[in-house]
Request: fold
Amino acid sequence: MSISKGIFITFEGIDGCGKSTQVKLLMDAMNQSGQKTILVREPGGTTVSEEIRDILLHRHLEDICDRTEALLMIGSRAQLTHEVIQPNLTAGINVIADRFTDSTLAYQGGGRNIDLGWLIKLNQFATYKLEPHVTFLVDILSEEASRRKKQEKDRIERAGIDLQTKVRNAYLELCNQFNERIVLIDGHDTIDNIHGTILTELRRRHLFE
Reply:
């Protein structure tokens, strides 16, 4: 893969934390400032990846084993990285991702107890060792996240608060481990305040004009 010229920003957090709202606000802000930016989500974003998303989240296949779940997630990411993320970055277009490798480390590592070292190596293989310039972890309590979810829950969300709590704890551990890259954001704050905090951090890192 070619050397990236665009800025790669990822957002993470448990389901219902509010990150999807923030990725759209940031994409609009960057485009309005003249920094051409696209948005991708995981799992999904390509024809192959969307098919995998349907299997993982919406076909109600409750008997998907944990390792299959991890491999499908990472397979979807590999296709998205190859087909969309890296080509845009190489072309000088910024990419904001609603979830990336940290989601697998938190959900399949922390949530499903799969070996973290193995997941990290597999993710590096799948993404050509692509690393975000910065990752924003929007953190809220699992009970608050569950309360916010009004629409029908997908297969992973239906696993309940216990899984979300394990995932949240895993995210916080990742934040400590990769504290230069991952920025912890209080998801209980207002939408505008969170957006402002994100822009301030990007300016501090010279990633937003």
